[in-house]
Amino acid sequence: MVEVQQLWVQKVVDSMMKSVERENTWKMQGLMFQCSASCCEDSQDSMQQVHQCIECCHAPLAQAQTLVTSELEKFQDHLAWCTMHCNDTVKDSIDAGSKELQMKQQLASCVTKCVDDHSTSSQL
């Protein structure tokens, strides 16, 4: 059951990342390369000026990648917290005398809800 949940979480994260790549990263990379190429057009510029120009072209993509990494880390933190909460809830059920199958179903349902809640509210 846990393996199925992990695969599902991985699928959700992969889907979100592919969406970010398709809708943002690829366009930004294209613009970055076009900008970088234009930095090399003026033969009067020094090598230092060309390198500074290219660095400026790379900055927006680097900032976007930093933001995506930060949001992904927040998403993982939320899932970890939520999973701990689910585990605590199931442990409370053990104390109340619930059956093993009920506890597994309760855990699976709780984790699924966590992923649903956090994947739809994520800014990725």
TrEMBL record:
Pfam families: DUF842. InterPro entries: DUF842_euk. GO terms for cellular component: cytoplasm. Belongs to the FAM136 family. This is Protein FAM136A.
